């Protein structure tokens, strides 16, 4: 009897330990980034970072709440409910208009489904009071691919007589920054900062930083946030399709809304390893509402694939949406 009790206690302990380890692995996968350093930023600059959240549990996830340890950071959750296989973001907004100096915060993400756990995310940064961006970021909005667009902001400085902007640098060749001094006083200066998004910018949403290099030896580099969405001739909604767990050979019906800048006819809808069936009238129009019957045929396991839509005619263009799913293959019992 004592041996049985001892054995059960050991099994219970090992099971609990295994569950804790599994939970740790799960949260590491669901929250691949758990800290971010904003570096040195200017007053009133739009300073944000989006922590990605991936639901890899196989069940629907519910985030009960998010707490911030400091008012210097505001957490903004894109969705409290995340379906199995889906994703969301937790935006950490650094409150640069109202805070100064070295600041940091811990964001506690409280999850109550499918398992209760708390995940800690951290942000840090230094808000310098002698520089102000107005507006606080360059937000380009929608940009047609193949057309160059330029955005601008102004930088106001108050402090040293000899302070200067000496350079601006971007992380991508299709972002072209430039600067020009427009005013200078005894202890202040104003610069106009512009960033051009070139014609060869890739499709999709971008959020990046342009670095302003100054002659300030103590804090020479200051980031300026730039964002926008490069759109193609076609726009697909939804852009991301998450099916969760499906069986190979199982047919799923999905409605797509496909919008173009000019009238177009659809030539094909394809996804590798999937059979894609839809009624095609061959009519050219700006908006198509298409019901697609999607069946995984050769696809199996975890899937993250592009659905490629091609238009008809000599000036054919393509657009892509993303399909995610966990395709299970039924096992045939051996006789």
UniProtKB/TrEMBL annotation:
Q: Where is the signal peptide?
A: 1-22
According to the record, the segments passing through the membrane are none
Q: Does the keyword Transcription apply?
A: no
Domain of life per record: Bacteria
Pfam families linked: DUF1573 (PF07610)
Q: Which PANTHER family match?
A: LIPOPROTEIN-RELATED, SIGNAL PEPTIDE PROTEIN
Provide the protein name. DUF1573 domain-containing protein
Q: Identify the species of origin.
A: Neorhodopirellula lusitana
């Amino acid at each position: 009897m004592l041996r049985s009790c001892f054995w059960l206690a050991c099994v219970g302990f090992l099971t609990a330990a295994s569950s804790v380890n599994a939970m740790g692995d799960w949260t590491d996968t669901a929250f691949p980034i758990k800290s971010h350093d904003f570096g040195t930023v200017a007053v009133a600059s739009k300073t944000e970072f989006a922590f990605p959240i991936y639901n890899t549990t196989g069940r629907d996830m519910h985030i009960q709440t998010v707490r911030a340890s400091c008012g210097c950071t505001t957490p903004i959750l894109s969705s409290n409910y995340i379906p199995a296989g889906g994703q969301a973001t937790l935006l950490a907004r650094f409150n640069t208009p109202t805070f100064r100096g070295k600041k940091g915060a811990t964001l506690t993400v409280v999850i109550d489904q499918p398992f209760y756990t708390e995940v800690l995310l951290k942000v840090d940064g230094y808000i310098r009071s002698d520089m102000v961006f107005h507006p606080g970021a360059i937000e380009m909005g929608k940009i047609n691919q193949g057309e160059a667009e330029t955005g601008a902001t102004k930088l106001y400085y108050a402090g040293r007589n000899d302070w200067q902007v000496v350079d601006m640098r971007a992380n991508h060749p299709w972002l072209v920054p430039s600067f020009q001094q427009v005013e200078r006083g005894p202890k202040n200066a104003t610069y106009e900062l512009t960033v051009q998004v070139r014609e060869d910018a890739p499709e999709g949403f971008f959020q990046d930083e342009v670095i302003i290099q100054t002659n300030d030896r103590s804090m020479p580099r200051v980031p300026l946030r730039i964002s926008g969405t490069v759109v193609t001739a076609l726009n697909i909604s939804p852009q991301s399709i998450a099916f969760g767990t499906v069986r190979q050979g199982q047919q799923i019906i999905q409605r797509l809304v496909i919008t173009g800048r000019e009238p177009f006819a659809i030539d094909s809808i394809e996804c590798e390893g999937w059979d894609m069936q839809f009624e095609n009238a061959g009519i050219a129009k700006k908006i198509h509402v298409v019901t697609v019957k999607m069946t995984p045929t050769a696809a199996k396991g975890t899937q993250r694939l592009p659905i490629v839509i091609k238009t008809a005619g000599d000036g054919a263009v393509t657009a892509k949406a993303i399909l995610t799913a966990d395709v299970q293959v039924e096992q045939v019992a051996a006789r």
